[in-house]
Design brief:
Blueprint lengths: L4 H42 L3 H15 L2 H13 L5 H22 L6 H15 L3 H27 L6 H8 L6 H18 L2 H13 L5 H22 L5 H21 L3 H11 L11 E3 L2 E3 L2 H21 L3 H8 L27 H26 L9 H21 L7 H32 L5 H18 L23 H9 L7 H30 L2 H20 L10
Antiparallel strand pairs: 1-2
Helix pairs in contact: 1-2, 1-3, 1-6, 1-9, 2-4, 3-4, 3-11, 4-11, 4-13, 4-14, 5-6, 6-9, 8-10, 9-10, 9-13, 10-11, 10-13, 11-13, 15-16, 15-17, 16-17, 17-20, 18-19, 18-20, 19-20
Length: 576
């Protein structure tokens, strides 16, 4: 039989891999949009002890299907002091188990059904009006695409069995000795490090095994290498992160390396145990099944998923008693916490215990909103490529967005029905200020993105510098503590141009700047103009309610209420 390598192999394999990885991304994004904030709150409450940390890490990672998101979540909570280092380490252990739940789902024999399910969920996504329904449909679409992509890869890999050159090469990758086992493990680790996804590597391995290209023990060996490869990805990802992020990554690295080192000597014994266990999951994975006249091995993905789960559970049980040792060793990574970059995704002042006390909860909201504003101002440092600025504008914006949602949710909870009108009015004012602050942060993010992704000529850069200085000066109206340098000349002599003048200067650049530069500056000026309008709205909102007076009366009312309640002839102070 003639094989068209492009049509029969490359198209389905590359297309299937792309669809598979897109499905993983869709599923993770959909589930995280639905539940990531709830999961953060649950984790903060649940991970009080190492045992609870393992259970919480397993459950949350199993739901959101992203160990990366889980790591970011844990690091943020550790930085904020919500979770201590010891239970945080246990959460990472649980996250290792949680990621294997996805591998078990991938092994389900849904096959071609993935395409029709993806179509159904896509239609729901396109026509849904509710954001919640859209996110559910996105997660379902990703789930379905995983199976369809895996099915495509399996079909595209099957013809390789008829190519003698390929089979001769793959025969050298048979895990029939410890030397060949190590070879398989390191190759899989390298592939995982390159594509940054252990799930994708395991998906490829499952496809090769199901197509009969790899025998089932070799496929399992490759899955072990995928677990090792994730440690390389974690190490690379932690290079530019804070010390606590590095500690989290090092915990992941050390768990998996120790686990692989212990498991490799026991590999062939564990294969006998796995072969026995497969009797309860369908039989011998080495026995082919004829489908449409072709041999296939549907139990190989099941064996791979089962072994991957067993490996991580075994690893966690083995290392759990040594969490204290890990804590002592990891706490020595970096001699001080002062150099850590602050994590703005976790509130610092929003204490749930204060939510029932209006007079204390409102100042907490004001402090957190001011902190959100400071985080937004950092985008100017990013625009200027300051060394103290966050390295990733997108990641910093996501952190501020999460903080914004937490502020709004906390403030809305203060709005009780029995509150006086003036207190409800103050809460409404705080919600509007938080909303304007979020919009201002988004505009500042756009400013940083536009400046960072364009290389300006000298005359164009001069306009950009003046525009950023203008925004600096405007920010001082609502952020007096903002750390920009004071002008060396008297304030009355500082005359920053209006946006219209800067726009005219941009248009007059002519041959001194390219069209792309001028277009970027005009868009930048638009973002700055919107930012200045929002700064004025924030300032006006702060003055719309006499907040100090309302808080003073609330405090006085609280102090008077116990005395009033002591006298049976007096009723509680009525709402004004």
């Amino acid at each position: 039989m003639d094989i068209d390598i492009f049509k029969d192999i490359l198209v389905p394999v590359i297309g299937g891999l792309g669809i598979f990885m897109l499905g993983l991304d869709f599923m993770a994004n959909g589930i995280q949009a639905l539940s990531v904030n709830r999961m953060r709150a649950f984790l903060a409450k649940a991970a009080g002890t190492p045992i609870k940390g393992v259970l919480a890490g397993t459950l949350i990672t199993g739901v959101i299907q992203s160990s990366t998101a889980m790591s970011v979540m844990v690091v943020g909570l550790v930085n904020a002091g919500v979770i201590a280092l010891r239970p945080a380490i246990s959460v990472i252990m649980g996250a290792n188990i949680g990621t294997t739940l996805g591998n078990g789902l991938i092994a389900l024999p849904l096959g071609p059904l993935g395409l029709i399910l993806a179509g159904v969920f896509s239609l729901i996504y396109c026509f849904a009006k509710s954001e919640k329904v859209k996110n559910i449909a996105l997660a379902g679409m990703g789930f379905a695409l995983i199976f369809y992509g895996l099915n495509l890869m399996t079909g595209g890999l099957r013809p390789l069995r008829n190519l003698p050159e390929v089979m001769a090469l793959l025969q050298t990758l048979t895990a029939d000795s410890y030397l060949n086992l190590l070879k398989c493990v390191f190759i899989a680790a390298g592939v995982t490090a390159m594509i940054h996804s252990s799930s994708a590597t395991i998906g490829i391995v499952m496809g090769l095994g199901a197509a009969g290209i790899l025998d089932w023990t070799t496929a399992v060996a490759f899955s072990l290498g995928a677990d090792l490869g994730t440690t390389i990805t974690s190490w690379m990802a932690s290079l530019n992160l804070s010390k606590n992020a590095k500690r989290t990554a090092y915990a992941h690295i050390s768990f998996n390396i120790i686990g692989v080192c212990i498991t490799i000597p026991l590999f062939f014994v564990s294969m006998q145990v796995l072969e026995w266990a497969m009797q309860f999951f369908g039989g011998d994975p080495a026995i082919p099944v004829i489908v449409d006249g072709k041999e296939t091995f549907p139990l190989v993905p099941v064996a791979v998923g089962l072994y991957s789960t067993f490996f991580n559970v075994f690893n966690t049980l083995l290392l759990f008693p040594f969490i204290g040792v890990f804590e002592r060793v990891l706490s020595r990574v970096g001699h001080t916490d002062a150099e850590d970059t602050e994590d703005f995704s976790t509130p610092r002042f929003l204490d749930r215990k204060l939510a029932g006390d209006f007079a204390k909860a409102v100042p907490a909201v004001q402090q957190e909103t001011a902190r959100h504003l400071e985080a937004g101002a950092m985008f100017l440092d990013i625009a200027r490529s300051s060394k103290k600025a966050p390295s990733d504008p997108g990641e910093h914006y996501l952190a501020t967005d999460i903080l914004s949602r937490d502020i709004r949710a906390y403030t809305a909870e203060l709005m009780k029905e029995d509150l006086p009108y003036e207190q409800l009015d103050l809460i409404a004012s705080l919600i509007e200020e938080a909303d304007f602050t979020a919009a201002l942060t988004e505009s500042m993010h756009q400013v940083a993105r536009r400046v960072r992704r364009e290389k300006f000529s000298g005359p164009a850069q001069a306009i950009v510098d003046v525009a950023l200085s203008k925004l600096d000066a405007s920010l001082r109206e609502i952020l007096p503590t903002y750390g920009v340098s004071d002008p060396k000349v008297p304030a009355g002599h500082v005359n920053l141009p209006e946006v219209e003048e800067l726009r005219a200067r941009t248009l007059a650049l002519g041959p001194n700047a390219g069209a792309a530069e001028r277009g970027t500056i005009l868009a930048l000026l638009g973002s700055i103009e919107r930012a200045e309008i929002l700064i004025q709205r924030i300032d006006a909102e702060r003055k719309s309610v006499n907040r100090q007076s309302v808080l003073a009366r609330a405090s006085a009312r609280k102090e008077a209420r116990p005395h009033a309640m002591d006298d049976p002839g007096l009723s509680p102070v009525p709402a004004e």
